[in-house]
Every structure is written in C-alpha cells, then in structure tokens.
Amino acid sequence: MLRRFLTVAGAVVALAGWSAAGAAADTIRVQSTTDTVDAGLLDGLLRDAYAQAQPGDTLAYTAVGTGRALDNARAGLADVVMTHAPSLEAQFVADGFSADPFGRQIFYSDYVIVGPRSDPAGVSAAHAHDAVGALEDIAAAGQNGSASFVSRGDNSGTNVQEQSMWGLTSAVTKQTASNAAGDATRSEPGSGGNVPSWYVRTQKGQAANLQEADVCPSSTYPNGNCYTMVDRGTYNRLANAGTITNLAILVQGNDPAARGGLNLLINPFSAYVVNPDKFADPAAKPNVTAARRFVDFLVSPAFQQALTSFPTAVDPAFRPDASPSVTLDGPLPASTSAATLTVAGTVANVLPGAAPVSGMALRVQRSIDGGTTWTDVGRAAATDAAGRFSATFPVAQTAAFRLSAPTTATTAYNGLTALDTALGTVKDARKPSVSAITLTRRRLRLTVSEAGVVRVTVLRRVQVRGGVRFRAVRRAVFQPDARARVTRTFRALAPGRYRIAVRARDLSGNRRVSTVARTVGRP
C-alpha cells in the first residue's frame, strides 16, 4: 500500500490507498470550473493526490465557467470535463459529446448569498434560509437605491443557478437571461434586454467576482452595498486568508418549504469523458483511456474519503457523493444455523435533494479467501421506487459477504459509481449431515448435505473368542463441493451384518459423527 502525506491549510492529511500505476504517462486535458481552483481543491489536494496515484500522468487543467468548459470540450480541447450546471450537462450528453451514456457524480458543495455586514436589504433577518425571498429583498433594495447585486454573468454553473433562482421570484421585474439560449427557466432582472443599474454582470470567475463584490467600487456600483452568490468553499478560503473582509454569509441552507426546496443552494459537480467520435481531426480526439483513468480516480474510495477533511473535517469545501449510501434494516448475524439469510435496506443518493435510487441492480457476493475474490450468491435484486431492496442468499459455509451494484444512471446525464458495501462475516453453524445410506456387496451410496469432507469406515460383525466385535473392512473418503448423492464401489463384501461409521466435516469446520447398521446379503 502506498501511503503519502499532504499538508493542507496547516494540517497534515494522510492519504492512504492510492494505487500507483507507473506504466501510464499521458497529458490529460481537463476543462473544469473556477470553483475547484478558487476553493483551493486543485492545488491543495487534487493535483498532488492524482500525481501519487498516477505519477506518469500530467494534468493540463483549464479553469473556466461551466458553459465555457463544455464549449471547449465541444471544440476538441478536452479529454474530460468537470462541471456543475445540470441543465447544460444534460444537453452535452444529449448531443452525444459524452463518451459514456452518462457522466459520474463526483462531489458537491453549496452556494451562499453574501453581502455587507450591515445588510441594508435585510435578507438575514427576513430570509436567512430562503434564497428566492432574499433575491426579492435585494431587488427591492436595489430599486430604492440602497443595494447592488454582483452577477458573474458568464454562463458558469453559479450563474446558471443564480438565473434559475431569479426565475422563481414573483416580486421582481424579470426577463429571460441574455445568455440562457432561450431557456425560459433562467431569468435576470430587467426588461427589453436591459438590466437595472443595481444589477451588474462582471464576466469574472468565482473568486474574482467575490473580490469585486467585497470592494464594491462606487464607479461601478453607485448604490454600494454589494451582494453576490458564491460557493461556500471559495468564500471560506478567501475569508480565512483575509482577501475579503467586508462580506458575510447572510443566506444559506435553503429551507425545504421555501421556493426551490432543500436543494436550491446545493452545487453538484459531475465529470464526463469526451466522446472521440465527435471529432474527425485526430489532434482533437480525446484520450479516452487516460480520461477514464482520471475519472476513476475522482470516484475512488481513497479520493472520496480525502474530500471529507479538505481543508478541514469541520467545514470541507466539497463533500463526496460518487457512490450511494446503504442503510441496512439490521446487521447480519455473526453465526447462523439457517440455510439462507435475507438482507434488506435502502440505497440512497447522498446528494441532498436527489431522487430515490430506483431500479439499481444489486447482488450479494461471497468471499472465502479474505476478500481476494468475490462470487455472486443468491438471486439478483433491485431497488424499488423508494430505493428499498431485499435479497435472500444461501449460507453454505463461513464467509464474508458484501452488497454489490454496478455503476448506475440516476438521471439522463449522470449517475452513481459502482457500490461494494461490506455486510460482514457470517459463520455457518449448521452441522453437516449424511443421509440415505445404502450398502450392497459392491457399493456404498449416501447423500451429503453440503461441501466438505466425509470419511466412512465400513465395519463387519465377526465372531471372536468371548463374543462379537466389529472389524473395519473398507474405508472411503468423499469430498463433495456441494450437496450431492455420492457413490463408492469396491471389492465384494461378504454377506453379513455391518456398521457404517461416518465422520463429516463441512468447510466451516463443523463436524458430525454418526453410525448406522446395515445387512448385506442373507440375514
């Protein structure tokens, strides 16, 4: 196991489990959003962590708004894109620019609305957990000359979400956003193609836009008192560094009952491998193998776990959501005498506000070699409309069990990474049994209940001085790999009375000893 240590914001974070595959050596063109750079993820964790996992690869990382990143990918400038605007991503996949039928969820953050600590629009008091109501407050303050709103205006994921929020307002004069490509759900204040003076589009990235709102120059914002929307990770990084000093978080954590619901301020990121079939020019064709290697890293358990403590475990900039969570109704028993067990529970998408995970194919798998190899056991199962499942499987021997599912689409454009959830080790407590024993002069037959080793000794009743005794005359060993009817032939036995001593041991070490009497030939 390769173990490395990265120093992040003064804390040492151990990253264990990276798989260094030195054979790969490619430059991977990544078109991504400014959020991942401005929140510190790229240089604080991602670049070094990937270098540990794939020391031969180089990331050529371009940080722009989501709309621009997807446009660059369409122009043949990317092997993989990392974006956070679901509506734009859905169109990217629908247009055939994804090499796979759907992309991958990788992580999420959340948006906050920030503004001057004096909060002249009163959003903190009136709508601290209602982002749409807060925008209406800001618009009203803008109209009376006491507030401004700083919009990126660049078709980035943040800008797309901001416009969707303006679209939900009811007390604002609004129009279809100028960069929305006709999407009527995306709005901005104003009418007739003009926006009010209190609403300014900067065409800047996440950090630069936030810094402009912090300075709020009077030459551009005569109303002063600048508000804006930003991802929490970028705000925290710049605030902690002292780069911004005038802005405070005023709106966060949208209330489920507020317009837009719980997930209105959730900021989901996905990754897409670009489809080489869309490009005739060989120079523009994406390196699909390298791109998938990078995406597999992003969704790997090691990187997903590292996200939970970057830059701190108390307030991570991004939260992992590549794989679903599994909640069991109860644990498997440590030991059982039953031939089968049933595991039931719920599979859920950990992205806040996501729909239930329905139709996910599930298998229970067994390992008897400490997790080196896994084998499907029992019948396939699937989650229902609420994400519930139930799977019954046999317990033939002591083994480790896990619940497994393939990478699964959850929307038309992205999905969840393959699931492998440990269920625990179950000891098979049932003793093996041997039944239906028949003995003829030349053949011994019996039925074995399960895999294991059965040792049989055939003893003949003989007269000796002073009485009767049984003497061993034949021995046999059976090693069935499952329940079976087994046979052993041998040289003919003399007629008489016999005892058959059976010692059976299954693969879990359970033993049973028994003896039966049989008569061969004449009585």
Give an account of the 3D structure.
The protein is α+β, with helices and mostly antiparallel strands and 523 residues long. It has four domains: 2-107 and 267-320, 3-Layer(aba) Sandwich (D-Maltodextrin-Binding Protein, domain 2), CATH 3.40.190.10; 110-264, D-Maltodextrin-Binding Protein, domain 2 (3-Layer(aba) Sandwich); 325-428, Immunoglobulin-like (Sandwich), CATH 2.60.40.10; 434-520, Immunoglobulin-like (Sandwich), CATH 2.60.40. Helix content is 20%, strand content 39%. The protein has eleven helices and 31 strands. The strands form seven sheets. Strands 3, 4, 5, 6, 7, 10, 11, 12, 13, 14, 22 and 23 form a twelve-stranded mixed sheet that branches. A five-stranded mixed sheet has the order 16-24-21-18-19, with no helix packed on it. It has a four-stranded antiparallel sheet with strand order 28-27-30-31, with no helix packed on it. The termini are far apart. Mean pLDDT is 94; it is low at 1-16.
The number of strands is 31
CATH superfamily of the largest domain: Periplasmic binding protein-like II
- Looking at CATH, which topology of the largest domain would you report? D-Maltodextrin-Binding Protein, domain 2
Distance between the termini: 69 Å
CATH architectural grouping of the largest domain: 3-Layer(aba) Sandwich
| Beta-strand share of residues | 35-45%
Q: Kindly name the structural category.
A: alpha+beta
From the spread of the alpha carbons, the general shape counts as: elongated
